[in-house]
Amino acid sequence: MTKAFHSSGDVIADRRAGYARMLAEAGDHAAAADLLVQALEIVPDWAAGWDLLGSYHEKAGHVAGAISAWRHLEALDDEGVFGAGLKLAAHGAGRAAEGTAVSYVEALFDQYAPQFEQALVERLGYRVPEMLDELVRQEMALLGIEHFARALDLGCGTGLMGQHLRGKADYLEGIDVSAAMIAETARKGIYDSLQKAELVAALNARRADADLVTAADVFIYCGALAPVLAALVPAMRPGGLAAFSLEAHDGPEPQFLRPSLRYAHGVDATRDALVVAGLEILRFETAVLRFDRGAPITGMLIVARRPPVELNAANDGEDGGDVAA
């Protein structure tokens, strides 16, 4: 998805950029790029223009041109709002920074919020909240859990996951990095509390109070899974459940950045990361999460448990270690 159009501050440059956008919408991305180059000759420090130019080059199949545009963008965008570093890394021209590109993700979903549900559910066939909810429901039945005292929905967005959790939790919290997403879901009255925060920081600020933590298509923006799990496990009560989705790949890499700027995680590496984090794997399934440009995106649906106190005590007696780090 491209960024919303931002004025360059120059009328002539804006007019040329507007014509370029019309050409792009008509499918002539090469001509759109040519016209946008003319606009950038007038306003060479226009970050949004370089972002659009990179997008037009990429869609025209001119990867070298896209990389050049994103290098210009990277030099102008100190906060990383346009995700130039991610785009360069996804095309083999750089290395993604560790962790979530917070400014990029925040800007992306601030822009995306008004049409989020229509785009994701109606056009892309997104069903991750329903699928995760079904797995949680099955585990509740197997474990004899009637309800959760406190549930935490990470990356709550517009409440697509939360609406399934509402009847299962006495107290339901939502956390999202995007203020616009928080505003959209606040209108629905699904959550008992909502917080705008980066998820790892939010998890690190709490200790062992969540019976259930969910993250529907959230960790796909976080890169390495281990630091996320290291923050997640201490935020859960012993015996608490975590349910989340990841995009999957079958290679040896723990994760890699796709051109979509979402991370795909290795299946085997993910299993290992869960075990190292001290989680007990209850469900680990693969499924089609959504469609992207008509192609199915395969992912993992996972339900894991922080071992209950009695399991920790038993293990402590055997080897002196603490299973739930």
TrEMBL record:
GO molecular function per UniProt: methyltransferase activity
Any one of the GO BP annotations: methylation
Domain Methyltransferase type: residue ranges: 152-241
SUPFAM superfamilies documented for this protein: S-adenosyl-L-methionine-dependent methyltransferases (SSF53335), TPR-like (SSF48452)
Alphabetized InterPro entries for the sequence: Methyltransf_12 (IPR013217), SAM-dependent_MTases_sf (IPR029063), TPR-like_helical_dom_sf (IPR011990)
Keywords: Methyltransferase, Transferase
Pfam families (alphabetical): Methyltransf_12
Protein's name according to its UniProt entry: Methyltransferase
Lineage: Bacteria, Pseudomonadati, Pseudomonadota, Alphaproteobacteria, Hyphomicrobiales
